[in-house]
């Protein structure tokens, strides 16, 4: 799902193919059920851009890479490009700001991840609780960004001015890491193994489905790696890999942009028949029926 495919409302502003921002801060009407259902039927979907969701009021539930998240009042969620979103549920009373950046990661994301990296598993989602004053600063910066994107006075230096606002948002978010609950700074060896394994799967599942490859990448025996991953996550490593493959396959099939053969090629299956058998064993129906 790229920026051109994002569901939008009348507040949405896009800047070339680099940025999209929108909110429902002034919205007094509930969403059209038909529009909601149309959007929900597109899941699962894979994000090709980094996204930031600021929940000022209410609650948003979403599932990313097999993990469920809840963002409530005064919460900022950062979701990296490459993640697969399975579902989203938004409270009727929720007030939100949504920003999406193509080819541009938030400047402080890397340092934010270090705050509690072993609990983030695939390292693709950061959820931070902000102080009310920080939320107000983010709202002010967001409104400034909207002015920059729409006012012709900024045409010559619009991109630079816009990304200055993004940098400011990143700084506010980074400051917000000091608000988080105390967590142990000690990371166990098993935590590190799981985090590295899941990151490795995220980066390589399209090309490598052999467990031996991942054991070699982690410099561990296959037996020990399998034991630790299963012990810590309740899933065998092969299940993690297969789930990533199948979820990506479902995403491409549901998008309507790929034929079954193209999906098989994208996921590096030797042929369409082999992919069809792999998919049916996991899902219970053929790729064509799923599509």
Class per helix and strand makeup: alpha+beta
Number of domains: 2
Largest sheet: 6 strands, antiparallel
* Share of residues in helices: 40-55%
From the alpha-carbon coordinates, what is the Rg to the nearest angstrom? 20 Å
CATH architecture classification name of the largest domain? Sandwich
Strand content: 15-25%
Distance between the termini: 16 Å
CATH level-four homologous superfamily name of the largest domain? Regulatory protein AraC
Low-confidence stretches: 108-122
> Can you write the helix and strand succession as a string?
EEHEEEEEEEHEHHHHHHHHH
- Placed side by side, the strands forming the largest sheet appear as 1-2-9-4-7-10
Molecular shape: globular
Tally of separate helices: 11
What this model shows, in words?
- There is one protein chain.
- This protein is an alpha+beta fold and 291 residues long.
- The chain is built from 11 helices and 10 strands.
- The strands form 2 sheets. Strands 1-2-9-4-7-10 form a 6-stranded antiparallel β-sheet. It has a 4-stranded antiparallel β-sheet with strand order 3-8-5-6.
- The chain is globular.
- Helix content is 44%, strand content 18%.
- α3 (132-150) runs antiparallel to α4, α5 packs across α7 and α5 (189-204) packs parallel to α8.
- Residues 108-122 have low confidence and may be disordered.
- 28% of the residues are buried.
- β1 and β2 form a beta hairpin.
- It has 2 domains: 3-179, Sandwich (Jelly Rolls), CATH 2.60.120; 189-290, Homeodomain-like (Arc Repressor Mutant, subunit A), CATH 1.10.10.60.
């Amino acid at each position: 799902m790229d920026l051109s495919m994002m569901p939008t409302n009348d507040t949405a502003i896009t800047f070339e193919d680099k940025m999209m921002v929108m909110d429902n801060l002034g919205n007094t009407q509930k969403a059209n059920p038909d529009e909601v259902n149309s959007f929900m039927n597109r899941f699962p979907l894979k994000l090709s851009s980094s996204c930031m969701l600021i929940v000022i009021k209410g609650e948003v539930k979403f599932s990313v890479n097999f993990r469920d998240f809840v963002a409530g009042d005064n919460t900022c969620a950062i979701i990296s490009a490459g993640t697969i979103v399975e579902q989203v549920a938004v409270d009727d009373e929720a007030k939100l700001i949504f920003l999406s950046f193509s080819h541009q990661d938030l400047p402080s994301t890397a340092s934010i991840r270090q705050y509690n990296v072993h609990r983030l598993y695939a390292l693709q989602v950061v959820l931070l609780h902000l102080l009310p004053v920080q939320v107000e600063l983010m709202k002010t910066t967001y409104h400034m960004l909207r002015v920059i994107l729409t006012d012709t006075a900024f045409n010559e230096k619009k991109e630079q001015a816009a990304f200055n606002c993004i940098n400011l948002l990143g700084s506010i978010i980074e400051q917000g890491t000091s608000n988080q609950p105390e967590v142990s700074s000690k990371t166990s060896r098993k935590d590190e193994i799981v985090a590295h394994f899941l990151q490795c799967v995220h980066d390589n599942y399209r090309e490598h489905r052999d467990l031996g490859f991942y054991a070699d990448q982690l410099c561990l025996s296959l037996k020990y790696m399998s034991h630790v991953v299963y012990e810590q996550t309740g899933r065998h490593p092969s299940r993690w890999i297969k789930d990533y493959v199948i979820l990506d396959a479902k995403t491409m099939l549901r998008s309507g942009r790929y034929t079954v053969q193209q999906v098989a090629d994208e996921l590096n299956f030797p042929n369409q028949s082999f992919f069809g058998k792999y998919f049916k064993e996991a899902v219970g129906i053929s790729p064509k029926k799923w599509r």
